[in-house]
Amino acid sequence: MVDITFPSITLPRNLLNETLHILNKTRTEPITAPNAPAIPPWLQHMLLSAYFILLLFTLLLTAHYIYYARHARPVNYDPPPGGGGLLSIIIPVKNESADTLLGALRRLSALSCPDAEIIVVSDDPPEKFEELRKAVEEAGIRDVKLLRRPNPVGYKGTALNWAAEQARGDVLLFLDVDSVPPPDLCTRARAVGEKEILFLGWDGYASVETPIATLQLFLYKYLLYYVAILGRHNTGHPVFALGSGIAVRKNFFREIGGFCNCTADDYDISMKAYVHGGRVVYSPGPPVYVEVPAGFHAFKRQYARWTYNSAYILAKYFSQIFKLKMPAAHKLSIFLNVVTHPLMILTTFAVMLAGVAMGYMGIIIPPLHILILQLALFITAALQLFYVYRLAKLDGHSFLEVAGKMAKSAGLLLILSPYLTFYVLLGLLKRRIRWYTTPKGLAALRGGAWGPYEAATVAVFAALLAVAVYMGNVIFATSAAFLLTVALYVYVQMAMPSSRSDTE
To answer: Is the domain 87-292 a CATH 3.90.550.10 member?
Structure first.
């Protein structure tokens, strides 16, 4: 028999009593610093109530992520049997170099893909289109139709719709020019059902190694591919197709009206499929690899567009989501999928503002109900980190490495949240935005790390810190110093190295 003796911990009675007294006091009001500025009780109550609601939303998003992360694991699959019929692979281009297009065509030519036509639809000016045509002709790549729209107006979706009408295939497969297709691309695409949109899955690759690109590769693999795609597929919940690697039968494509004339064409066509009684299915197997932006400003623009797209789809389809003919759990899953980005951005920005406001009010310990939610949020954040680590450790990532990646992601989101909030509001109002083609390779590194937004955020955080020091408000100064430190880290350690080009 082994005797096990547990160490005894004795707390001073005065310390325990004082702690209980403080917690009891927080049941009715927060604990503030002695020199805190006087705030009207109604204003303080309003701000704390808003902060409480924000914490609830943040908890919902984190719990939503954890649910799918628990089911995120690779899928064992049997390759579908080879199907017959002509397959039309459609690639849109605009402002792309000839080398980029030739790389895409060579990747497709290397596949085993009989009875397939490749259609490249260009919205470039006539002289640029002629340059692309000559490059393809000189490269000797066959079975490629290079078409230019006679009236290249509208967004990418209108170009894809026009190209689909020129296609001869029964199955349409849409790929971006920077995509690296899986070896069984054509076989899996031909397996699409009659009233389905088939999605081949996404993962990322980087042609240039930068801090921004490295972080995105991590997030693409473990948050997008594993959780948002595999996690949803494994639970049987609805998935959404992303902008490259989408297959659909031409009849169903016409029935649902094709792509929208908007920047959110991939999410929009997914919603159209559900609204018309169809579905979006994930095709298990190797994913399509898409290039992640290597430059800070290229990343910022792309993320702003994605954020806008989710908000736009939410505003457009909100009234229809809960009318869909599917189980209630699936309706909720679609709603949370669409609302995740806008809600994450809005809550992050609002929590930033709430933190500054609570710092100004000198709140040391918030009311008990908020304190409980903060503890719950800490626990769920730890669970989120655990599940990401559980996925990443299979590829040799250490816990500290995973924690560092997640912290960098949170810091980047925090500092960009005011900028992204603007795009959320534009999307909710369904205001049109300009489409910027995401630059590829070294082109993504052009432009400095600092622009008007970066200079403005640093100036605002520095001004808040100066005011807090002048007031002698330690809590306020701590909040401002934290934001300034995070901003400088993001801009100096992540933005500047991803905006330099070795070719300059």
So the answer is: yes
Work out the burial of residue 65: count CB atoms within 10 Å of its CB; fewer than 13 is exposed, 13-18 middle, 19 or more buried: buried
Place of tokens 């400088």: 488
Global pTM value: 0.88
Cβ-based neighbours of 246, under 8 Å, separated by 6 or more: 173, 174, 197, 198, 199, 200, 266, 269
Residue-wise pLDDT for 316-375, tens only, equals 999 999 999 999 999 999 999 999 999 999 989 988 988 898 888 887 778 888 888 889
- DSSP 8-class letter at 481: H
Q: Cα 490 vs. chain centroid, distance in angstroms?
A: 18
Domain ranges (residues) in the chain: 31-69+343-495, 87-292
Using CA atoms, how far apart are residues 260 and 238, in angstroms rounded to an integer?
A: 20
Helix (H) or strand (E) holding 345: helix 328-360
User: Smallest Cα–Cα separation from 379: which of 20, 66, 162, 8?
Assistant: 66
Q: What is the pLDDT of residues 378-429, one digit of tens each?
A: 999 999 999 999 999 989 999 999 999 999 999 999 999 999 999 999 999 9
d(CA 107, CA 101): 10
Which amino acid is it at 54? L
